[in-house]
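Bench log. Compound arrived from synthesis this morning; before running ITC I wanted a structural hypothesis for how NDP sits in the protein. Inputs:
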Amino acid sequence: MMPATSDTPRAIRLRDPRTGQSDGVIEARSSSALADIARRARKAQVDWQALGFEGRIAVLRRFGQAVEAHRPEIAAALERDTGRRRIAGIEVGSLHGTLAGAAAAAGAFDAHDWIEGRASPHIRHSPQWAPYPLVGVISPWNFPFLLSMIDAIPALAAGCAVIVKPSEVTPRFVAPLTAAIAEVPELTDVLTFVPGDGATGQALVDLVDCVCFTGSVPTGRRVAIQGAGRLIPAFLELGGKDPLIVLEGADLDAAATAALRGAALSTGQACQSIERIYVARQAHDEFLERLTILADQVRLNWPDISQGDIGPIIFERQAEILRTQIEDARARGARILTGGEIENHGGGLWLRPTVIADVDHDMAVMREETFGPILPVMAFDDEAEAVRLANDGEYGLSGAVFAADIETAARIGRQIEAGAISLNDAALTTLFHEAGKQSFKSSGLGPSRMGADGLARFLRRKALIANTAPPLPIQVFSEEVLAV
Ligand code: NDP
């Protein structure tokens, strides 16, 4: 990789995930081009902030319409980025929800009334919210559009200018999206997508006032350290190893259905994927049987992209991680009940949902992030053991509990060290973005990107403090007064 200070534009060769073939080249921005973009963004941000919440939301709504008008091209490019069609369309459609969430959250920051002091009624203050002028968003390859917008839109609504650096693995959607941005003149310069690689991301962190990073733990750690050196906040959304606990008395059909969707949706290439399953010993064999039957029915979206349930592995190197985890489990005595082989079809790589039994926490598949459709299942003897196993690991993104009733599931959910727990379902943060949730342990840093905090995190609290009485002279604090 070229050093971040390099001013040479770098060519990045693209790989089609459905064929494995190179299908184009993009050019990473040089550091001086990036610095120019940042300068323009800072200049434009002044007028953008001056529009106020209402004005900005109105512009963002027009942006939503422009994206809608360009939806076919953006979705088609995302399809080439990710090798899947339905989810590409859903990603573009998700912008409406993101815009609605930002509009709802913005309402809380409109009032700037004076508030009288409790101890000193003649001193009053007016709460202000000052946006970070320039926010950098660095996004991963698994949901290239959604995971860029989920931070960019609330930051824009807050009054920030935004530069997004998408993953070099999936940058094709940027060109049609940039055409949509160009149709909204107020956004020119305050929303810019810069294709690039890791060095581009690193250079971006040095130019912004706040960085939102979604990606792996090792890179997130580097971004946080770099941000700390500049004393800028780094909001990190990192990896996970989400557990699902199935208690005795749970509806096993429902649990197996949710487990499979939670683990295999998007070929498991989602941070909130279910990656390990703990089942009460009495229900273990029956659950495993139902899960395996359901997993066997999942179809690849190959050869026809308009048919099937799951797409290819987007990032070639991820296939090696999946293969290694499956081999490690097999070598340590686990049984692969279905799936288990990386399949090459027409040059693309696929993995069918892989159910694994007889696993334990010495196996990589139970400890390391998988990011693929692998469902290792382990029995537990009592609730305390289930909670201990669920909490045994470095991640704390989210989790899930199935029980005979919601209250029982909630009792266990409260004991799991993770930011969002789905009850009698799995991975509900895929479908529901209204609940505030942080990432625990190594899964992240900073306030919630979901719920109202998603916007509030881009606003610094500021106070105008007014004294309506004459200013106090320094003698009020003199030693003589104290001595009296
Ligand atoms: P990476 O950490 O490899 O990359 C994430 C982004 O960071 C990419 O745009 C990458 O660029 C860029 N980057 C790489 N090096 C640097 C650097 N030194 N400084 C700044 N930016 C850099 O993650 P992946 O793209 O592989 O994404 C998968 C990971 O994302 C998984 O761990 C997954 O769990 C996590 N994730 C977390 C989510 C959450 O909400 N918690 C949601 C979705 C995914 P490039 O790709 O061009 O190298």
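What the model suggests: The CA atoms of residues 202 and 222 lie 9 Å apart. Residues 242-430 form a domain with the Aldehyde Dehydrogenase; Chain A, domain 2 fold (CATH 3.40.309.10).
ITC booked for Thursday regardless.
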